[in-house]
Amino acid sequence: MQGRTRRALLLVCGVALAAAALTACSSASGQPPPTTATASTPTALPTLEPEKQVVVKGKTLVTRCAGRGPSVILVSGYASPMESWDPVQARIAAGARTCTYDRLGIGLSDPPPDIQDFDDLAVQLDGVITGLKLPRPVVVVAHSMGGPLAYTWAAAHPQDAHAMVLLDPSTPTYDAWFVTHLPKPDVGNPDISNLLRAVAFDRDPKTNRESLDPKALDRVARLPVVNVPMRIIEAGRDDGGPLPGMDSTALREAWRAGHRWLAGRSSDGSVIVSQRSTHYVQGDDPDLVVKTVNEMLR
After folding, report:
1. Are 146 and 248 in contact, with CB atoms under 8 Å apart?
2. Tens digits of per-residue pLDDT, 98-131?
3. Residue 128 domain-assigned?
4. Alpha carbon distance 36, 197 (integer Å)
5. What per-residue confidence (pLDDT) applies to 43?
6. In a domain, 160, yes or no
7. What is the pLDDT of residue 6?
């Protein structure tokens, strides 16, 4: 699977709980790529505060905050540390109390339980908000797998959710499409064999980084429409490089169709396409992310 692109990997890393290679996925999501956009950053930004521990249901999660004002919580993608928000956290914190955290199994946070779903992750997110004493309602900004987590939390706490800004989020509809369109096993094709092996690895809660149940997104698909504004910033640029045995055009359309479905789960949902961004939206187009969050704060 060497030579496959980071976007292709991240489309399935923690999205369908499947990836072209777990090590490549961890590298892609755990170490954010260099920022390619030129951001118009203010000259004086709030300083990131020292990390703080928050205990939720007996488990310790590590957090980091900056700034003052209304509350913003940043939710990372699959297996991605809170440093993935470095391109935008201080800038958002110029006008809001802005915090992020490492989920269980990531960074210095405690290991996860044997199995989790998005309801469990939403309870942990709510515990972090409470533990940090963030005034509610909160703007939730979430990347990739953080998208269905943010939606799950907002469905359970609609009065506490001021708005959601979701960056190229994973969706239940894409997960279902991906699993049903995997190539058939082909012992003569090592790329397909590696892909299917990695899919099985990442869909097993015993081996994926966050102990996620492969059926975790099924529950998300049944959540109600929420009366919470939702803005989805969709990556408009591909890194190129298909997954073996899969139709790249159909894969991208399924990804985008998932965003349209998710926007429809909000009474005020819409999709914004970032033409300069690949999957790592906060690194590729930080200006658009900061602008959209500030609009939601207003």
Report:
1. no
2. 999 999 999 999 999 999 999 999 999 999 999 9
3. yes
4. 32
5. 62
6. yes
7. 35
Instruction: Report the alpha-carbon distance of residue 213 to residue 76 in Å, rounded.
Output: 18
pLDDT digits (tens, 9 = 90+) for 187-206: 999 999 999 999 999 999 99
> For 218-268, how does the pLDDT look when each residue is reduced to its tens digit (9 = 90+)?
999 999 999 999 999 999 998 767 899 999 999 999 999 999 999 999 999
Q: Is 44 exposed, middle or buried (0-12, 13-18, 19+ CB in 10 A)?
A: exposed
- Report the CATH number that the domain containing residue 136 is assigned in CATH: 3.40.50.1820
Whether 280 maps to a domain, the answer reads yes
**How many domains is the chain built from?**
1
CA distances from residue 248 to 124, 178, 181, 243, 261 in whole angstroms, order as listed: 35, 11, 11, 7, 20
For residue 184, is pLDDT > 80? Answer: yes
Residue 257: domain span: 6-40+52-297
DSSP string, the chain: -TT--HHHHHHHTTTSS--S-HHHHHHHHHSPPPP-S-----SS-PPPPPPEEEEETTEEEEEEEE--SSEEEEE--TT--GGGGTTTHHHHTTSSEEEEEPPTTSTTSPPP-S-B-HHHHHHHHHHHHHHTTPPSSEEEEEETTHHHHHHHHHHH-TTTEEEEEEES---HHHHHHHHHTPPPP-TT-HHHHHHHHHHHHHT-TTTSTT-B-TTHHHHHHTPPPBSS-EEEEEE------PPTTS-HHHHHHHHHHHHHHHHTTBTTEEEEEETT--S-HHHH-HHHHHHHHHHHH-
* Whole-number Å distance between alpha carbons of 74 and 84: 10
R_g of the chain, CA atoms, integer Å: 18
Tokens representing 225? 């429409």
89 lies in some domain: yes
For residues 42, 235, 168, 239, the Cα torsion angle rounded to the nearest 10 degrees is -110
